[in-house]
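Changelog-adjacent note: as of this version, every example in the card shows the full chain rather than a window. The one below runs 401 residues end to end.
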Amino acid sequence: MDLYKGSLYWPTTLANLEVPEYPILNKEVICDCLVIGGGMSGALCSYLLADESLDIILVDKRKVSTGSSSANTGLLQYANDKMLHEFAESIGEEKAVRFYKLCYEAMKKLQAVAESLDSDVQFQSRKSLYYATDKNDVEKLQKEYNLLKKHGFDAEYLIEEEIEKIYGFKKPAAILTTGDAEINPQMFVRELIKEAHQKNVQVFEHTKVTEEGFHNGYWKFTSDNGVIYAKKVIYSTGYEGINFAKKEGGELNRTYAIATSPLPEFSMWKDQCLIWETKRPYFYMRTTFDGRIVAGGLDEDQVEAPSDPEILARYGDNLLKRIKDHFPGYQVEADYVYGATFGESDDGMPYIGEHPEKKNIFYCLGYGGNGTVYSMFGAEILKDLIIYGNHPDWDLVRLDR
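Full-length structure tokens:
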């Protein structure tokens, strides 16, 4: 599967940095835990498990960090594509709040992990401005604000006049929250895996493995040149885990994103907060460490993005227009334009936990707009399931929920 089409921004930020090289598996190895997939989920799982007294192997059929992580727009938010009050209506208020707080705590842990790394991964704490696209969405935005405040989330409600005064554009209403962030996602994944490797996690790139079944206490996997026997296995294959996810209600779609030319400063963009809207599919935007704007949206119910440069350019122009609708004074162009595959679940939550029919086979699939946040708490849940056999929140995201 081609996970993206077009020109990506994040790889250019790594161009002048030393990129670790990992070997192809060409032997027979045994491990306590095999992690399949070297993207965000696999990197976080490997990084957390590296501190345990286990033999860990991470494999990726590509070069690590070059799958969906290189197309990730790097907005880190605890709020979900599905609002808290919508979750409350579908799974009950207690579970909904528990899930949102799990996401909120994962944001804190992502910051702690990012700041503990030896290299700067461009993590920056940000507020989020979530605005009503039109007056029809004001009522549900008020409902969302009331429930957030009821359960202790730091949120401020802004009316139209306040939004225009602070940000310079007109929207009927908005919620301003704290606790979110932005990051360079590809650099983050690369550094997580590098430090896990330094803690004796074995990493093999360009190594596609196939599950061959359970033999004498081990799950057997084969590649073109090697064999792995693992007591426990984590599938962190992202959107390429769709064959499993489809059985649980997952689906793949495509989205578009751009990174603009740099700006000297961000006048009127108060605190360079993350900006997104209530409309579905929604438009969103953030800033970068070198003064660019990354914006995304225009989601479609198709899997692979078009490869025709003219079509991609048209989508890029549409996203650029949305930026200028908010900030008409910004003189920017779309330097990078791409389309990418992303996954969603029916109920808005990720697929994390042990396979209901295969003991010691686990999944960490962060389907949804909060994939990085899901990967963070997913890695913690799986670490505890593997080490202790339990985690207090495993039932929220279990595969057979």
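Structural remarks: The chain has eleven helices and 18 strands.
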